[in-house]
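Progress report, Aim 2. The chain analyzed during this reporting quarter is listed below.
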Amino acid sequence: MKQTILLALCCLCGMAAQAQKYVGGDISMLKKFVDEGAVYKDKDGNNVEPLTFFKQQGWNAMRVRLFVDPSNATADEKKQGAIQDLEYVKALGKSIKDAGFSLMLDFHYSDTWTHPGQHGTPAAWKNLTADQMASKVYDYTKNCLQQMVSAGAAPDFIQVGNEITDGMLFPTGQISNGNASWSNLINFIKKGIAACNEVCPQARTVLHTELHNYEMVKTFYTQMAAAGVQYDIIGLSYYPDFHDSITKFNNLLTQLETTYTGQQIMIVETGYGYEYQLAGANFNFTSTYPLSDAGQLKFTKALIETLNAHERVTGLFWWYPEYNLNGIINKTGTEDWSKDFTSGYWNGALFWPRSGYPLSSIAELKTFLNNTAGITSVRKNNAQDNTWYTLDGRQLSAKPHTRGFYINSGKKYLVR
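Predicted structure tokens for the chain:
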């Protein structure tokens, strides 16, 4: 009896101690879209102020990127959204904080886009030695954060680099394509974290990787642990069109959660199409998640269900939800590229771009915050009917012991 009571108390304590969770989007282009006249609507067709609307959908956090000097980006890169200099980010960041959201600041440490294949060194830093570059990372990070704090836009989470799976500040800090500059990369990261801790000691630091190479992701965090890098959150980009199935992603989450017990995990970028596949897609899941509002919603539900099976996954950010050309379309009904501020067509947004109406996933994302809503957590000695099913309807031969969600007696259970 005492053992049963103790187990119950431990379970209650564990539930009470669950970390706060955050859901929102990377809305780095919102200020530009609003400035250009984009009109956002609710599902009833009423005009809405975007940040207020996001708040009404249950979102509680936003992410914004920062470039060193995006005036050096190419014309195409600027039209793709590489425009966020410090003044822009201070203004948008203050709006986000004033609206009551937590703020994640994403340092790119480049004048333009960074991702595993591209981490250009800022033009003003190109002639620096590795040691000088590390000092510059510290000085630049410190200065930006001081200005953010003074502007009323102090970040709550800080990414020290964006999608740095292969390194940053190429070629000096590159760790792929025959380069092995782990020492340089680690020094850059440590200097950036030191500045974060000095100026914003309450903020949590994020190391962000992308899943083009799952083994490299594991190698990356192994190297960080071996070097004693002190950070708080593993940040991941996950798009099924580029990174394969939710099942494969779930397996990685389990490995990271098991191996790196000192860090939380956040999905700092995700998205799925509603009309077309994302450009450059490597995988096709349209038979499972059709290219429609309903298909995008189905993906969102499946992703959240997977994430909520992992206690230490505490953040989910949708990429570029604010893309919306309503109000920026000329009288013939075609996109008005004379504005010269955006190009292409982002199909992973959460608004219909020509009408400004929200897609269904925008309201679904808040369910990520409801980790235990409608779910019963079971242990191996609980007595239930012996017929168990997976969420996709497959009957199991016995009661499951593997962590995840299952159906038993018409109810959903989370096996821990």
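The radius of gyration is 22 Å. Residues 1-17, 372-383 have pLDDT under 50 and may be disordered. These observations will guide the mutagenesis work planned for the next reporting period.
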